[in-house]
Amino acid sequence: MAFDLSSISKTKRLRAPKIVIAGPGKIGKTTFAASAPGAVGILTEDGSDAVDAQAFPLAQSLTDVYQAIGTLLQEKHDFQTVFLDSLDWLEPLVHAHVCEANKWATIESPGYGKGYVAAAE
Fold first, then answer.
1. What is the pLDDT of residues 44-78, one digit of tens each?
2. Residue 85 burial (C-beta neighbours within 10 Å; 0-12, 13-18, 19+)
3. Strands, DSSP E only, in the chain?
4. Among 88, 90, 116, which residue's Cα sits nearest to residue 102?
5. Angle between the 62-74 and 87-102 helix axes, to the nearest 10 degrees?
6. Alpha carbons 91 and 74: distance in angstroms, whole number
7. Domain ranges of the chain
8. For residue 20, what are the CA distances in angstroms to 9, 48, 84, 88, 118?
9. SS3 state at 97
């Protein structure tokens, strides 16, 4: 690599913020997320019927979530914000995916904490 004046670049880059919104049910978390500019939802929970939002069909597996993300990455669109509703309903999808991949009956099948470690990876 040549070190000359043409190799100088700006080091500070704008990165999209990653925000987690927590609160009790029906406080407006989904409404808040859906009000972001150009928002589209990836839904793992069937509870946002009253919210006026654009969203993919209800994800019933981790593969569905990955496919929704892949669609946004690969296809041209005008969305600016992606929200996942909700993380606590995503967790069982992750556990089911890990169990299926490892042929475990439950996330606790491999022994104390090991299934959860595999899910976190």
1. 998 777 888 999 999 999 999 999 999 999 999 99
2. buried
3. 39-43, 81-85
4. 116
5. 110
6. 25
7. 21-120
8. 32, 17, 10, 12, 23
9. helix
Of the chain, the end-to-end C-alpha distance in Å amounts to 35
| Residue 59, token pair as written in the block | 């994800």
SS3 content of the chain, % helix, strand, coil (to 5): 35, 10, 55
One-letter amino acid of 13: R
Cβ atoms of 40 and 85 within 8 Å: the answer is no
Dist. CA 10–CA 109, nearest whole Å: 50
CA separation, residue 73 to residues 19, 44, 53 (Å): 19, 19, 20
Give Rg (Cα) of the chain. Answer: 19
Instruction: Render pLDDT for 1-12 as a digit per residue (tens, 0 to 9).
Output: 678 888 888 887
Other Cβ atoms closer than 10 A to 109? 12
What is the pTM (predicted TM-score) of this model?
Answer: 0.83
